[in-house]
Design brief:
two-stranded antiparallel ribbon; alpha/beta; Rossmann fold; single chain; 2 domains; 15% strand; elongated; five-stranded parallel sheet
Amino acid sequence: MNTDITVILFDLGRVLMHIDFDAFPNALDLSSEDQRAPYRTATAKLTRVYETGKITTEEFLEALYVLFESRYSKEKILEAWNSIIVEDNLEIIPLVKKIQQQYVTAILSNTCESHWQKVIKISPLTRSFHHTFTSFHLGAMKPERIVYETVCTALSVQPRNVLFIDDLQENVDGAISAGMKGILFSGVEKLTKELTNL
């Protein structure tokens, strides 16, 4: 691999862990597009505010409770919301373990407090990482430049020393524009080949 690289930075959802965005509305019996549509825009706005740490978990749940017109308890909403987080991506574990023998590894994720608490609870893979950076702690989200700069500052490395792996092109592009190297994740086999080529 490129000798400049000392840190491998991983996205969490759909890279290290399986997530299911449909699990949230499905758990609230909002299975059809027509049932979900009235809540989509407001939920997306609330999620962004929550994932940047601007509101607490309790405030987020209260806002959803009002949005859903008190049809579900806050406990039910939280359970449904956290069902988005499924389990570790078992296929990537051997590759991560190999990488961790040679490089500093870190996680950079757009996520919220309640999801992160579940991740830490159920994910042995996540707990094996040297460093973790979450949007709700950083107060900003990928692909904002400040996110990548904060990671480099915290790890005392130059952007060129960091390789970032994410499943969204816009986040990879953000990392590259900040001076990092980037790989778009589309599967473990392809990632292994790309790492070997580097």
